[in-house]
UniProtKB/TrEMBL annotation:
The keyword Zinc applies. Gene3D superfamilies: 2.170.150.70. It comes from Mycena venus. Transmembrane segments: none annotated. This is GFA domain-containing protein. Residues 10-130, 147-263 form the CENP-V/GFA domain. It comes from the Eukaryota. InterPro entries: CENP-V-like (IPR052355), CENP-V/GFA (IPR006913), Mss4-like_sf (IPR011057). Keywords: Metal-binding, Zinc. PROSITE patterns: CENP_V_GFA.
Length: 270
């Protein structure tokens, strides 16, 4: 797109509405992604504000949880209440105050319809990501497939003994799942062994309060959801397959969940 193209003003917010912002940019016409570990686990889609047009209209950027790792060139920022990963800030002097915005948090932008642009190969920079140690469990039932996974920082980790290989999952477009980029499988809760739960997770529930979305307090990655008073999900935990070590999401039979249309419809909190 030409640099002379007009700027569009975008508005966004974390899910709970504690943090709201605006920025101007050339019209967003592609989904720009990165294959590094944190971007993959959070399913970021990136947009870059024009100049210093990023403006906070509610809340305080400094109140967002900031997660840094590796060479600490970037601060990944998420809401401590709902876990929405909103943005990153460069921390090196040559980049000034440059920011990238996770456009999954932008209002009235159907990023599901954006064509995928070139994937930035962030995985080739710095040291390769090392998953945390596997969570030990008891004997593995015969015929089971074992999966290990975690948030990015490793404070929350798990082992799953699945009676069969995971070949399908649900990609839900509801207001919270889309922001978290969650890709869900629904194993029996008894098949999961966690480390760091519940001490290192924050639970976020809204609307019916039947689904409790759990994300790491340190790095903000959405790991799992558990359910209360929800007969269809009794005895099950929703596991975000983005957090499974070495899992090939492209191999899945991905079912689209249209949670966006479920009543009551999500409205941006005042």
């Amino acid at each position: 797109m030409s640099d002379s193209a007009p700027l569009v003003e975008y508005h966004g917010n974390c899910h709970c509405g504690a943090f709201k912002f605006t920025f101007k940019a050339r019209e967003i016409t592609q989904a720009k992604t990165c294959d590094c570990a944190i971007c993959s686990k959070n399913g970021y889609i990136w947009g870059q504000p024009d100049g210093d047009s990023f403006t906070v209209v509610k809340g305080d950027e400094n109140a967002l949880v900031s997660y840094e790792f590796g060479k600490r060139a970037l601060a990944h920022k998420f809401c401590s209440t709902c876990g929405s990963s909103v943005m990153v800030r460069w921390k090196i002097d040559s980049m000034g105050k440059a920011a990238l915005i996770n456009i999954r948090t932008v209002q009235n932008l159907d990023s599901t319809k954006l064509p995928l642009g070139d994937v930035f190969k962030g995985s080739t920079f710095g040291d390769a990501y090392q998953p945390p140690a596997a969570v030990p469990t008891g004997p593995v039932p015969d015929g089971s497939t074992v999966y290990h996974g975690s948030c990015h920082c490793g404070a929350v980790a798990y082992t799953l003994h699945s009676p069969e290989e995971i070949t399908s999952a649900t990609d839900c477009n509801c207001s919270i799942c889309w922001r978290n980029a969650a890709v869900w499988a629904y194993p029996q809760t008894t098949q999961l062994t966690f480390r760091g739960v519940p001490d290192t997770v924050t639970e976020y529930a809204f609307s019916s309060h039947k689904a409790h979305h759990c994300f790491c307090k340190t790095c903000g990655v959405s790991v799992y959801t558990y359910f209360t008073d929800f007969e269809r999900m009794e005895g099950k935990t929703a596991l975000n397959l983005r957090t499974v070590n070495g899992f090939d999401l492209g191999s899945l039979d991905l079912k689209k969940g249209n949670g966006r249309e479920l009543k009551p419809l999500y409205e941006v909190p005042a």
